[in-house]
């Protein structure tokens, strides 16, 4: 799948698991990649907002993450860092359970599924395990997420499986490597 540069502005309508909207800003020209976005949603009758900045190197390996959330209960923030040795720090504390993960994955975001698609050169039929540091929406707690991606065709369809959540679906990507359709989660808006 030949990918082109991510546009400066992209958005998704979240529906199914939650109702909301996500906006991504991805300025070009910087060394590496910076993805800055916000998701505001209502899930289970509870409203929340998660703002994030993800910094990745030239090979799309996550290096730093900053996230904030706001709910009626208050606000929280967290920082993640992945060293060249593959070790993760969450708010300055080493998290051995995350060691070996290359990507971050936000429960609140459709954009984080782009990281492995840009980083890995999938051939059609390839199934690759891509564990990630998973950040929860409601409290920004972080856990290890076991997941796999299988490239189904040249058109941008991938079978996605989250072993951690016993969940599977078919993801559709565009030529930017961004989600077009994430069933029960998000649909590309612009």
Helix and strand topology:
Layout (H helix, E strand, L loop, with lengths): L8 E6 L4 E7 L7 E11 L2 E11 L5 E10 L2 E9 L5 E3 L2 E2 L8 E4 L7 H6 L7 E3 L2 E4 L6 E4 L1 E5 L5 E6 L4 E7 L5 E4 L3 E3 L2
| Beta strand % | over 45%
In the predicted model, the low-confidence regions spanning at least 5 consecutive residues are none
Number of helices: 1
How many structurally independent domains?
Answer: 1
Q: What's the overall average pLDDT, rounded? A: 96
Structural class from helices and strands? mainly beta
Largest sheet: 14 strands, antiparallel
Strand line-up in the sheet with most strands: 8-7-6-5-4-3-2-1-17-16-15-14-13-10
- Shape from CA axes? globular
Helix content: under 10%
Distance between the termini: 21 Å
Write down how many β-strands occur, each being a DSSP E stretch of 2 or more residues. 17
Can you characterise this structure?
- The structure is a single chain.
- This protein is mostly beta strands and 190 residues long.
- It has one domain (9-188).
- It has 1 helix and 17 strands.
- The protein has one helix at residues 114-119; strands at 9-14, 19-25, 33-43, 46-56, 62-71, 74-82, 88-90, 93-94, 103-106, 127-129, 132-135, 142-145, 147-151, 157-162, 167-173, 179-182, 186-188.
- The strands form 2 sheets. Strands 8-7-6-5-4-3-2-1-17-16-15-14-13-10 form a 14-stranded antiparallel β-sheet, with no helix packed on it.
């Amino acid at each position: 799948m030949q990918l082109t540069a991510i546009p400066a502005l992209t958005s998704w309508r979240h529906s199914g698991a939650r109702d909301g909207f996500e906006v991504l800003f991805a300025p070009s020209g910087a060394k590496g990649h910076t993805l800055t976005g916000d998701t505001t949603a209502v899930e289970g009758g509870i409203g929340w907002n998660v703002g994030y900045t993800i910094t990745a190197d030239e090979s799309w390996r996550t290096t730093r993450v900053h996230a904030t959330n706001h709910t009626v209960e208050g606000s929280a923030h967290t920082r993640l860092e992945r060293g060249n040795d593959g070790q993760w720090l969450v708010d300055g504390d080493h998290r051995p359970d995350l060691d070996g993960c290359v990507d971050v994955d936000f429960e609140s975001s459709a954009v984080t599924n782009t990281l492995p698609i840009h980083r890995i050169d999938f051939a059609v039929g390839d199934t690759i395990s891509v564990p990630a540091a998973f950040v929860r929406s409601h409290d920004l707690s972080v856990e290890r997420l076991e997941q796999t991606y299988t490239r189904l065709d040249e058109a941008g369809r991938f079978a996605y499986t989250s072993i951690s959540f016993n969940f599977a679906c078919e993801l559709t990507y565009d030529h930017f490597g961004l989600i077009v359709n994430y069933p029960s989660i998000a649909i590309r808006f612009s």
